[in-house]
Amino acid sequence: MSAHCCTHSAASPPPVDRRYRRTLWIALILNAVMFVVELGASWTSGSVSLLADSIDFMGDAGNYAISLAVLGMAASARARAALFKGACMATFGIFVIVAMAYLTYLGASAGSPNEIDLAVPKQYEAGKLVAAQSGCLACHKIGENGNGGPGPNLSDIADKLPKAAIRRTLDNPTAPMPSFRGLDPVKKTALVNFLAQLHGKETVTQNASE
Ligand code: HEC
Predict the structure, then answer these.
(1) What pLDDT, in 10s, does the model give residues 141-157?
(2) In this structure, which residue's CA is closest to atom 37 in ligand 1?
(3) DSSP 8-state symbol, 182
(4) Does the C-beta of 157 come closer than 6 Å to ligand 1?
């Protein structure tokens, strides 16, 4: 019985069921729509996982398109199509592995969120350490370190704010920046001194070579 069924379906073109064809079309359209929706969402949000998922939908839509195209063709054509689908899936798999390896490499070389890789004169090292360990990098960029927001880049803060104003900002910041009023006074002075000599790239290197 089963031998009869399988020999039949593998050797000769199966009779094309209209309902089956319609189901394939519906699956194709749904996957294609989801591909476009997720691609747009990943573009606006910058999410790699949404991008990966949208590619998955695209692959599925492609698979349904191939299934529709070879529906009713000879067994050899359907076998070749199946082989092609397999190769596509393997390519997607390899692409995802390579992309993840690349992102892992980027993440690993992005530096620690509580370390500032920036050359400063010796007397400012203590303040640099306080800045690194107080979580400033979560919201500010200092040189090549930290996040680009929501706070402004502090790499040249000395050009924008005088020392006293920097200290005032730490004590009475504008939300969402937390207050550092309770910071140990010695540490706070070191921090303020460090910030008050950040004149952007050129001056920092100039200072460092003094
Ligand atoms: C939760 C996020 C956050 C953290 C953590 C944070 N800040 Fe801020 N910071 C901000 C935001 C947002 C602003 C801008 C506020 C405004 O609109 O005036 C700001 C403003 C500043 C300013 C004024 C900049 C200017 O151009 O006027 C300084 C200086 C500053 N922060 C230093 C620090 C330091 C030093 C630390 C760590 C000890 C720190 N911040 C931690 C979010 C943060």
Answers:
(1) 998 888 887 899 999 99
(2) 136
(3) T
(4) yes
Q: How far is the CA of 178 from the centre of ligand 1 (A)?
A: 8
Ligand 1 mean position, distance from CA 103 (Å):
28
Residue to mutate (ligand 1; options 163, 172, 177, 180; most atoms within 8 A of CB)? 177
User: Exposed, middle or buried: residue 136 (CB in 10 Å: 0-12, 13-18, 19+)?
Assistant: buried
Q: Whose CA is nearest to atom 15 of ligand 1?
A: 174
pLDDT of residue 31 exceeding 70, the answer is yes
CA 198 – CA 152 distance, rounded (Å): 13
User: Comparing C-alpha atoms, which of 123, 139, 110 is closest to residue 192?
Assistant: 123
122-208 fold: Cytochrome Bc1 Complex; Chain D, domain 2 (1.10.760)
Q: In angstroms, what is the C-alpha Rg of the chain?
A: 30
Q: Which pLDDT belongs to residue 11?
A: 52
Of all protein residues, whose CA lies closest to atom 14 belonging to ligand 1?
A: 151
Between the alpha carbon of residue 202 and those of residues 64, 71, 124, 127, 171, the distances in Å are: 58, 67, 17, 20, 29
pLDDT above 90: residue 12:
no
Q: What global pTM score does this model have?
A: 0.55
What separation in Å is there between the alpha carbon of 115 and the centre of ligand 1?
Answer: 17
* Contact between residue 126 and residue 192 where contact means Cβ atoms under 8 Å apart: no
